[in-house]
Amino acid sequence: xxxxxxxxxxxxxxxxxLPITSVDKLKMAAGNYxxxxxxxxxxxxxxxxxxxxxxxxxxxLGVFNGIANKDxxxxxxxxxxxxxxxxxxxxxxxxKTLRTNLxxxxxLHFANGATxxxxxxxxGDNRSWDNLSxxxxxxxxxxxxxxxxxxxxxxxxxxxxxFIYPLGNxxxxxxxxxxxxxxxxxxxxxxxxxxxxxxxxxxxxxxxHSRASVAxxxxxxxxSGQWDWxxxxxxxxxxxxxxxxxxxxxxxxxxxVPVPLDVAAFTNNKPGNLKLVGWNGxxxxxxxxxTINSGxxxxxxxxxxxxxxxxxxxxxxxxxNLVTFSAHKEGNISILDWETASxxxxxxxxxxxxxxxxxxxxxxxxxxxxxxxxxxxYHFADQNPANGDNFYRLKMVDTDESFAYSRIQFLQFxxxxxxxxxxxxxxxxxxxxxxxxxxxxxxxxxxNNAGHLVHSSSAKPLKTIDVRQLSSGKYIVLITxxxxxxxxxxxxxxx
Length: 495
Prior knowledge:
The protein is mostly beta strands. It has one helix at residues 263-267; strands spanning 2-5, 25-28, 47-52, 55-63, 73-78, 82-91, 95-97, 108-110, 115-121, 140-143, 151-152, 155-157, 162-165, 177-180, 185-193, 220-221, 225-233, 253-258, 274-279, 284-286, 288-293, 296-301, 307-312, 320-330, 333-343, 346-354, 361-367, 376-382, 388-398, 403-405, 409-413, 419-422, 429-434, 441-448, 453-456, 464-466, 473-481, 486-493.
């Protein structure tokens, strides 16, 4: 059976709660943007699942966000994956693919140099994607992949250019990998969170990738995750039950990944010791031609590896042996707990917090025991976490003031600031009342019902908007804070 989905009257197809099940092949017509919007019924599932035994062939995937709401996602569960031969546009939520031992087959496959974009609705209500008309993408803005915009699963590429794999764990981690294409080869990769020793490499389950098995000068292997790595001949056919053979590249592949945020903890404040390593079937060995520049580590691959991760060339002993570090919420408070198995010349712990994972500030300090060979427990409560994202880490300081960082923990708290727009409906002057610190507001914008910008504030936004020159109708007020957080509100201009 062959099922082809075509546009209606030259416009993009809109499918509400349409179950797509196993067919021999599901194909979306070339040149069309396919997007899913929230139906009038409130019973839209949390994620749209597209399942099948075979393959979804998509010349232009178009806008494919599951549904318009950002907290919904799309889950491709096709055993022969999704092949995109031109372009794909995703909304700003996680796109998921199968994580099984056949994951190579079920990847999102960007063929012949196909590209992708993530797009953010210009307004925040559930119907925001309805501003799209045919192939017109007005009403959305291109956003960079990141923590909130990535693919949780496997991605393949068979073009000849450089490709950024927008990979993450579907939650709080973004781990992009950039690689140049390899003639005649398809490169597939995914971020696999967790200890590589746990045998969680889905495409190479024959051996556990023990971090204790190292080669050459490598002394340490990263414990928080790895990139699954697989190369196959592009012309190799896929079956539902067999993983293609993992091959060597036809020419050296240059890969680049971000230096990990916890590089100081991993290398004991010696980031120059950081390396990239690959699992060769029996041990972790250093990749070739490794360089570090501007927060990015680059290396070349010229042989067969089944996984890639970080390594270090020198034993990075910490002032404490940190066993656990966790964070959880109790009401509006962040609770941090950690345990040490031993301490030598330890002085104190700084508790640090960040709202973006990059800029950190100390929010507390706890004196350590100093010397211990028994299990010790510590506890800290952040009474005033930030609205939105909160990243936490420990700075473990020795008596000689050397230090190392722990892994990062993440908690998120809902925005509690109240905003009232009045009068609403409005005919002349719209006023904004809020308990939010107005000095932290960077911009106030107004968009009409077609998604076009009709007003943008000055560098110091006022709490009023003159709407006397605007036509009657529905509008969206978008308030943007200095930290990038945006909130949208609907108003009605009526006369």
